[in-house]
Design a protein that fits this description.
Helix content: over 70%
Distance between the termini: 85 Å
Number of strands: 0
Structural class: mainly alpha
Largest sheet: none
Order of helices and strands: HHHHHHH
Shape: elongated
Length: about 200
């Protein structure tokens, strides 16, 4: 008698041996997302209550009531911390390989933009910390907010101008390569025609 062939397990046995994990995975992701949202809300509440006053004190101590120095400091901060986040976003877009890597670059851009975001929170904020920051900058940091706005605008314009020039240079290089390839192909075809002509 031949050996009996192995029998495949039926659907019920397969279902018992390989339990589904879809529900548990969705539940864990939901818990992680909920914890992340709560953490962001807490960070926003703490930040809106502390950061505007703290940032205004740092700027006020550095400026010390000097109008020209405050204007130049605001311009430098506004321009630098506008260009750097935009460069981080551009690098993330260029080297993107999935949403996780892009998310890393977005986080880096937000961190680099933190000084401008803190100044913007002082100007646009409606809380007590924002109003306290405005009073501090009125006395100790004159010219800083206006300089920061001008610097941010010029920084953004400079970034987009550089991006446009860089894109034009790449397009010109690509066109030059195409023209070079076309000329080489024409030369080869002419040489082939000359070689095929009777002597």
């Amino acid at each position: 008698m031949g050996a009996s062939e192995p029998t495949e397990p039926d659907s019920t046995q397969r279902g018992q041996s390989l339990p589904s994990t879809g529900g548990s995975t969705f539940f864990s992701r939901a818990i992680i997302g909920l914890v992340g949202i709560i953490g962001l809300l807490l960070a926003w509440l703490v930040g809106s209550a502390v950061i505007p006053r703290w940032w205004a004190q740092r700027l006020g101590n550095t400026t010390d009531g000097r109008l020209i120095f405050g204007s130049f400091l605001g311009f430098a901060l506004g321009a630098l911390f506008t260009i750097l986040p935009l460069l981080a976003l551009a690098a993330g877009w260029r080297f993107r390989k999935g949403w996780r890597r892009m998310l890393v670059f977005v986080v880096i851009a937000v961190i680099l933009a933190a000084p401008n975001l803190a100044t913007l929170g002082i100007v646009l904020g409606s809380g007590n910390a924002s109003h306290a920051g405005e009073r501090i900058l009125d006395v100790d940091g004159p010219g800083l907010r206006g300089g920061s706005l001008v610097g941010a605008i010029i920084g953004a314009l400079a970034f987009f101008a550089l991006a446009f020039l860089n894109g034009s240079r790449r397009r010109n290089k690509r066109k030059a390569k195409q023209w070079k390839a076309a000329l080489e192909a024409n030369e080869k075809s002419e040489e082939a025609e000359e070689a095929n002509e009777p002597a």
